[in-house]
Amino acid sequence: MLPWVLDDHDLGFLKKYPPEKREDALQSLLVSNRNSFKVPTISIFVEYGIFISLILACGLVHYLPRLFPTACKKLQPKLAPIRTHLLEAPLLGRRNAEPIPLFGLRWLTFQMPLRLEGIVLLALFLINLLPITAFYTTLAAEHNPRYPGPHSHRQQMQRYLADRTAVLAIGQVPLLFLMAGRRSPTTLVSGLSMNAIMLYHRWIARMVWCQAFIHAVAWTVIRIDQGRLVKMYQTPYWNWGVAAFMMFGGLIFLSLRSLRQKWYECFVFLHILMALLAVVGIYFHIHLLHSSSFRLFVIMTEITAAIWAFDRAIRFFNRLITSVQLRRSGRQLVKVASADVEFLANNKVARLRISLPAWRVQDGTQSDVPGLVPKLAAGYSIMLSVPRLQIVGDHPFSIAKARVIRDPKSEERAAFIDVLVNIQGGMTKKLLSLAGSKDIEGLALSRSLSVIVDGPYDHQLSLCATDHLLLYAGGIGVTYCLPFLEQHVYRGKFKTCKLVWMLRDLDLLEVLDEPLGELDAAADATKAKLFIDVYHTASRASEKGAPIATLEEVPAELPSSLSSSSDLTPQEEKSITGGLDDDDDEPAEKAEGGGRTANEGVLKRRWRNITFNVHHGRPDGIRHLDESVAASRADSLSVVCCGPRPLCDWARNETLQWRREREWADIDFHAECVLW
Ligand SMILES: Cc1cc2nc3c(=O)[nH]c(=O)nc-3n(C[C@H](O)[C@H](O)[C@H](O)COP(=O)(O)OP(=O)(O)OC[C@H]3O[C@@H](n4cnc5c(N)ncnc54)[C@H](O)[C@@H]3O)c2cc1C
Question: Is residue 619 within 8 Å of residue 535, measured between CB atoms?
Fold first, then answer.
């Protein structure tokens, strides 16, 4: 099985030489096998060892705080320097989430990894570089019956380089697939976020392509030297290799961020198709050589296919159990999950309330019940397909709310999850076709759609060990923060909790209307207090494709601060709403059929347990805790940010600076960056 061990084919090869030349021929074979196969295969095994250790280490770091929250809380302050300088700081400069243009080209960008990610990538690069550039031994031409001529040294080096790069490329294809699937074993064990998994996936892919390129060039040169290049194109194994190489090249090119973002669905479809063709190409490229020495590489390719199939099978099964229910009575034997669509914020946001089987949903007001199959809970994300609007393809959305209820009619347990969808230009825009429908009184009708749900994905953050929570949200990124507000109010997870929300368009406040109403009522019983600061950064939400809040395009000064907290009189509240509308470039339109502005509910309500302030402009730094929450050397603080990439980078850098000043026993940082 090991490719450098002599097999029957090699022994047959030796027999072709006269007895006095056999010793040289044997040496030549051994040196060749060592150079071509042993060096790169051992380096691949070393890489596998490091890879498995890193995945297990990530798994420990991810799951231990959930299993031993108190012990982790004690340990965290001691790890603060490691987190500040290694785990959370960008490798160079201040950008991590926001791509950096290369050579001033906006379509060619690069994502700066975090320092530890950078070190892992550097190690990966060296493991790939070393076996390509070092450990070569060649035999003198007079003792090398396989390469006897004057160009013996060059020919040997060409051949070894061609073989080594092939082994390295094929050996890393299983890693490439392990770092691709949402449900691959590595994703499940490591608990790494999809963003981190994708970072490694992209870099491994680039290395594999470079090696495939060197392999292709080296073999082309060898065949030209032998005068057999044209003939090679008549052999199926060669052509399968060419096909696999072309597929890899296409995959790398189509993965350019600019193309990926513009034609996402097209990218996903072609990516899956071309990746499969690449694996099939590699398989036949090796298999058709009919060499027992290459058995290991055939197995590696089969493992790759198995990893892909595992991911797809789990996702298919998950979709099935989550979205399709068998019915014991009635005419319909199966019931597919359905979503009731309601439009908010003047049709800029759609709320999808998706009905699901109760056993798949974790109610946000109750404590988590650990189980073998993870449940859909607020804070996780799902992949959502809406076949009526888009036949193939699914889209990721965060679960804003999850409830298990008892159906008053049937007394059966039922459940739903809410996702808040920011209307963009593709599938989400098609949702708007439902918005026009009105009943006879001109009121907007809610609409029902069949949906397929796959999830949960992207493990919910474990913040059980933190005392205070400071949430930063940009635009519809507030969806990600709502579950933390629930954890604070219903389960008293934190001593204090504050949300700082930046938005360009005040209409978006309507998104918080129902959730805050519920939380305010629930807080009467639990005595929890919530602090919410809204920063109205600009009113450019009507611009197509523009993120709702960015830090770059807002005035630097911090102007007037307005408040709608509970200690205001109704007259004061009225002047606040009026003040905002006057200042606004584009006054909020009237909501569908409602006859009131979309944000009035939130701005005019008298909150009992929520201190709700609205400001114009951008926040001045990140230290937005209420005065009552003094920094304490005994307490820990978590800063969570969800929003556009510049916002996440800004929050990360501010938090790192804050941690360096050691006001708190510990400050933790988490970012979820999206282009919503
Ligand atoms: C983990 C995660 C959670 C998210 N949660 C929410 C949420 O709670 N609410 C919300 O409004 N949005 C959320 N998004 C963003 C949401 O998935 C996209 O806005 C949506 O898929 C756009 O669909 P579209 O066809 O209308 O987009 P288009 O108008 O075609 O494209 C708009 C942008 O969305 C990207 N996009 C399109 N399709 C996908 C896809 N299948 N996967 C990833 N990106 C895509 C495009 O590259 C482009 O940048 C989330 C994204 C991620 C990665």
Answer: yes
Q: Cα separation of 417 and 337, whole Å? A: 11
Is it the case that residue 555 has pLDDT exceeding 50?
no
Rounded Cα distance between 391 and 175, Å, is 31
| pLDDT-wise least confident of 313-317, 464-468, 562-566, 654-658 | 562-566
The H or E element that residue 561 is part of is: strand 561-563
CA 293 – CA 32 distance, rounded (Å): 13
pLDDT of residue 332: 74
CA-CA distances (angstroms) from residue 594 to 166, 440, 542? 65, 14, 20
Which residue among 428, 503, 508, 648 is best mutated to probe the pocket of ligand 1, counting the most ligand atoms within 8 A of its Cβ?
Answer: 428
CATH 2.40.30 residue ranges for the chain: 337-457
- The C-alpha atoms of residue 65 and residue 135 are separated, in whole angstroms, by 44
Q: What is the mean pLDDT of residues 67-73?
A: 82
Instruction: State residue 293 phi and psi, 5-degree precision.
Output: -65, -25
Is any ligand 1 atom within 6 A of the Cβ of residue 258? no
Residue 407: C-alpha distances to residues 320, 410, 414, 416 (Å): 23, 6, 6, 12
pLDDT at 647: 92
Hunting for tokens 């084919």 — which residue is that? Answer: 9
Query: Distance (Å, rounded) from C-alpha 298 to C-alpha 280?
Result: 11
pLDDT at 384 over 80: yes
Please report which confidence band the pLDDT of residue 466 belongs to, taking 50, 70 and 90 as the band edges: confident
What is the pLDDT at residue 624?
66
What is the assigned CATH class of domain 337-457? mainly beta
Each as own residue / partner, the long-range contacts of residues 316-323 (CB below 8 Å, 24 or more positions apart, any chain) are 318/183, 318/454, 318/455, 319/452, 319/453, 319/454, 321/357, 321/360, 322/356, 322/357, 322/360, 322/376, 322/453, 322/454, 322/455, 323/356, 323/451, 323/452, 323/453, 323/454
ipTM of the complex: 0.97
The answer to whether the CB of 539 is under 6 A from ligand 1 is no
Range list for CATH 3.40.50.80 in the chain: 468-673
CATH number of 468-673: 3.40.50.80
Distance CA 636, CA 466 (A): 5
Dist CA 599 CA 530 (whole Å)? 19
Regarding the beta carbon of 397 and ligand 1, being less than 6 Å apart is answered yes
> When comparing pLDDT for 614 and 333, which is higher?
614
Ligand 1 pocket check for 674: Cβ under 6 Å = yes
Residue nearest to atom 48 of ligand 1 (CA): 261
Q: Say how many Å lie between the CA of residue 200 and the centre of ligand 1.
A: 21
Q: At 286, is the pLDDT very low, low, confident or very high (cuts 50, 70, 90)?
A: very high
CA 305 from chain centre, in angstroms, equals 22
Separation between Cα atoms, residue 608 and residue 596, nearest integer Å:
23
User: Ligand 1 atom closest to Cα of 421?
Assistant: 11
Beta carbon of 381 within 6 Å of any ligand 1 atom: yes
101 preceded by cis ω (within 30°)?
A: no
Using CA of residue 111, residue 115, residue 117, residue 122, what is the dihedral sign?
positive
